[in-house]
Amino acid sequence: MRKDSFRVLLFAAAISFASPVAPLADKIEEKYAHASELLWKADLKGAQREFKDIVQRKPQYRSAEVLLGLTLAKLSEQSEKNGDQAGALAQLREALRFDPEEAYWHSALAKLLRAQGNGKEARKECARAAKLSPDDSDLARGCGFGGSPEIGKDKTLPYWRDLLVAKSSTQAIALYRPAPAYSEKARAARLQGTLALWLVVGIHGNVEEAAIDKPLGLGLDESALHAVRTWQFKPATLNGAPTRVRVDVDEISFHLF
Q1: How much is the pLDDT for 24?
Q2: Is residue 143 part of a domain?
């Protein structure tokens, strides 16, 4: 056999052995794209099935594991709303198995455990949440049910809207408000959406306290908190004097362009 013919045969054999791998990889990527689409369309059960299948076929597919965790966390919220606390607890534990670094899943788990009377485990989960998101004032004070008061919900602390009923009063006005950065984990998973938080503006216009009200996940909450801690305001005034005030930030948006 001529040498060039032998090379052709070897090349053909290499293609025949390698060819099944590429279609399999392509199918997994197609399935991942479809599962992601189901998640963003809120077909959570469908997304769960497809992400689980992907993770079984391709272990250590990190983006699929992250989005499976996010899907399970959303399913847990649904179960809790429907009164199925046991189901919510199981789904949240499974979500954390796939992504144990999500502070607000630990916080949600702490609240579920506390509702079931398991205060010891609830405090452990809250401590994990506070460690993962150290800029969140509510988590630092016990996930909203610790011994210290929640400063953002202190009845003696006025909302900026409430100030305007008093004579010579003004609201806090943002002077420096840099946008938060996109987290790498959220970018890789192509997570988009909005979150809500509150903050306390002090008499010098600095942000003294901040906490997430409606988390988004995958590092975006921590990024938002880190950014708002640097914001500067013209302080609110009450009867002409600077005063501390709570400000609700109803929507911080994250979008990929």
Answers
A1: 59
A2: no
